[in-house]
Each structure stands twice: as C-alpha cells, then as structure tokens.
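Hi U.,

Before I forget, here's the chain from the pilot set. I'm dumping it here mostly so it's searchable later in email.
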Amino acid sequence: MELESKTPLHVQRYRGFVLIPEDDLSWQVRPERSPMHVLPFRAPACSIADVKALVDWRLARLGRDRRPKAELLPKAQAPAALSPNQWQLGVAQQQQKTA
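Structure:
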C-alpha cells in the first residue's frame, strides 16, 4: 500500500516566508519560523511576482521592510534605467502614500 505524497514540488522561499502553490492556482503564504509577525494567509490565483509583491506590501505595513526607501534612490535615473526591484519599491511607496 503506497501513501500518496502531497508535497508541493514548487515551494519557494522569499524574505522569511514559504510560498506554497495550490491546485486551484492560489497560494498559501506562511512564515518560515516563529515569532510570526505576519500570520499565514492565502493569496488569490496570481503569479509568483504578485505573491512576492503582496509579501513586500505586508512587511512594509508592519515596518519590517529592510529595503532602501524610494526617496533614497538616485533621482537622476530615467524610469527605463531602474531595475525591476527599484521600480516595485517606488510603486509600493506611492501606494503607501495614497493609502
């Protein structure tokens, strides 16, 4: 008698969280260790980049985001010259200001 293993094959770690894909294309997001500053949650069906952005947003809301602030980034760069991480950080900062 074989037991069917339900271990997900594409589990990813990101900034202290485990991102677990579900069969319905949603994601389970759980902290890797305690103490849990952010409780486990489910992300809707979306891409891995969207899940990572959601984790970043939740960490930023708690003040646990250790990445550089958007206003500290060099101002002389054109938007096309920004790295994807710098661009995402700028978008997150704008969302925080409007929230």
